[in-house]
């Protein structure tokens, strides 16, 4: 994926992961959310949490009042799966939004990074 592609309503690679058209290492699934390992990990542990149905959320900045429960569920799921992954010493949750945020896949996703000492601020 090239970084900085414009927002689009096209299906993304994440829809194909949800539908199992392409494989992924899924580590958590419920009726609303899916968590799977990032193919290009930026930390010892790096997984993504996505809504199974994008529901207009190509990016976080597209969220409306109607998305509040789903957004809460995704954040809670990040914490639940972090616990499952034994990230007890801490971790980071990141949402990249848009071109300046370096978003590359336009299907909302939470990055969860951990399993090692992280640095701050990011580059
Ligand atoms: P973004 O750059 O949009 O914040 O994050 C997209 C993330 O999706 C990147 O970290 C990238 O490595 C990951 N990614 C892109 N394509 C795939 C894929 O086919 N499978 C998996 N597991 N991760 C992917």
Automatic annotation (TrEMBL):
It comes from the Eukaryota. InterPro entries: Histidine_triad_CS (IPR019808), Histidine_triad_HIT (IPR001310), HIT-like (IPR011146), HIT-like_sf (IPR036265). Transmembrane segments: none annotated. The active site is at residue 109. Signal peptide: none annotated. Residues 13-123 form the HIT domain. SUPFAM superfamilies: HIT-like (SSF54197). A motif (Histidine triad motif) lies at residues 107-111. One of its GO terms (molecular function) is adenylylsulfatase activity. PANTHER family: HISTIDINE TRIAD HIT PROTEIN. This is 14 kDa zinc-binding protein. It comes from Ostreococcus tauri (Marine green alga).
